[in-house]
Amino acid sequence: MSSPTVSAEKERFVRISIHSHIKGLGLKDGKAVLKGGGLVGQLKAREAAGVVVKLIKEGKMAGRGVLLAGPPGTGKTALAIAIAKELGEDTPFVALSGSEIYSAEVKKTEVLMQALRKAIGVRIHEFRRIYEGMVTKMDIRFDRHPYNPYQQIPVGATITLKTKAEEKTFQVDEGITAELLTKGVSEGDVIWIDSETGKVTKLGRSSEGPSKYDISSARLVPVPDGSIVKEREFVYTVSLHDLDLMNARSGSLLSLLFGGREEKEIPPEVRKRVDETVREWVDSGKAEILPGVLFIDDVHMLDIEAYSFLSRAMESDLAPIIILASNRGFTRIRGTDIISPHGIPLDLLDRLLIIETMPYTKEEIREILKIRAEEESVKMDEEALNLLTEIGSERSLRYAAQLLAPAKVIAASRGSNTVTKSDVERVKDLFADVRESAKYLKEYEESFLK
Question: Which of the chain's termini has less CB crowding within 10 Å, N or C?
Fold first, then answer.
């Protein structure tokens, strides 16, 4: 009897993150459903997070932050991501571990400042005058290079654009000509030309234009309506940190030559200039601020200097929503001899809304594993799911979830697309959990160098 075979068709490569299934808080009329938005359980914590989202949207979180307090593996990061999802699709989300501020090449406060600025979005509305149409004719003019008479360079072009309403011919300079050549524009293409910058955008091949090929991968687009010259609104979102970098690079000789920056830290005057510009844009209606979420995990790793910086940052007009997470009870504040709840100074704790996350029940672990299995395209039978649920409740949810992908590989190696109980037992033997590995090394530590 022949064994079942797995389809030889290659699966499309998809990169799946540990929290890619999170879509929101899963609330209905302010009440958390058992399973919703990619989250399971943590009903009290999710409802509290829903209140936080309302406060943020009503502009009542100024000068305050959130602390997620709970044991490891209780969904603190997932909850922070869900809050960001509830705030809107364009809401920036920046995750940082407390220990990261010590491993960078710049000072601690600069790492925190850059993270804060990355978590603040600026949605810019800009009206541009553009030339839009299908290229019906294009003649490039060449001349001798001023420093090499044997080399020809483009010095201009005559281009004819057509819409459904009109057709016009334009003379363009060497800059736009170079853009046309760089973008590979040819007759039959639909393009935009920015009247201010001369930038050319190739939209695709006209569905009504001539074609030299029977089969082509070019994107087909219709001939534009209306006039060739038109005003068009462009909406794009950048972070304050993006604007900081753009302004810091301007005027730098190294930036012009190589595209880099000679300094590693952004000067305060650059950030001040950016803030003033953004405020002018907001006042004139050209832009709007999108306060994002800065999530700092293992917050007890921060020191007293970093805490002081965060306390001051919360009071800024341009500040994101700061969400901290800790799995510690009472511990020493780094840089001092003071023991404090969660290792956080009391003056900062007074500004935080604290949300507790609880250990998952066995049934909740089962539902979470089902969600992760679906997200990772792992098909399991009932016995395999039951065994993984037992592993998750006895050891840890993270360990059980980590076994999903290896179990799928084991199942595929025996020619099946369904994970069975034996596959889970096999990967459980191959990969140890933390308690097993610690016990193993404890037994053999006497043979190691000390």
Answer: N
5 near 415, Cβ under 8 Å? yes
Lookup result for tokens 């001369």: 198
Helix (H) or strand (E) holding 436: helix 434-444
The pLDDT tens digits for 315-374 are: 777 788 889 999 888 989 888 888 999 988 988 888 899 999 998 889 988 888 888 888
Q: Each residue of 51-88: pLDDT tens digit? A: 998 888 887 877 788 999 988 888 888 898 889 888 88
Which segments of the chain belong to CATH 3.40.50.300?
Answer: 27-119+292-356
CATH of domain 362-442: 1.10.8.60
CB 412 within 8 A of CB 6: yes
How far is residue 50's CA from residue 53's CA, in Å, rounded to a whole number?
5
- The candidate with the shortest Cα–Cα distance to 207, out of 180, 186, 226, 188, is 188
Alpha carbon distance 264, 99 (integer Å): 20
For 186, other C-beta atoms within 10 Å of its C-beta total: 14
pLDDT, position 252 = 42
- Take residue 22 and report the two structure tokens written for it: 């999170």
Q: Which two tokens stand for residue 351?
A: 């500004």
Helix (H, G, I), strand (E, B) or coil at 324: strand
Average pLDDT of the chain is: 82
Q: Which amino acid is at 290?
A: L
Cβ 34 vs Cβ 370: under 8 Å: no
Burial 319-348 (b: 16+ CB within 10 A, else e): bbbbbbbbbbeeeebbeeeeebbbbbbeeb
Q: Are 68 and 324 within 8 A, CB to CB?
A: yes
CATH number, domain 121-288? 2.40.50.360
Task: Give all strands (DSSP E) within 118-199, no chain letters.
Answer: 120-145, 148-162, 167-172, 189-194
pLDDT tens readout for residues 273-318: 888 888 888 888 888 888 888 899 888 888 898 888 888 888 777 7
Beta bridge partners of 145: 148
β-strand partners of 274: none
Sign of CA dihedral 270, 121, 64, 61: positive
Q: Among candidates 377, 436, 366, 372, which has minimal Cα distance to 411?
A: 377
Pick 27-119+292-356's CATH classification: 3.30.70.3340, 3.40.50.300, 3.30.428.10, 2.40.10.10. 3.40.50.300
Distance CA 242, CA 266 (A): 11
**d(C-alpha 292, C-alpha 90), whole Å:** 9
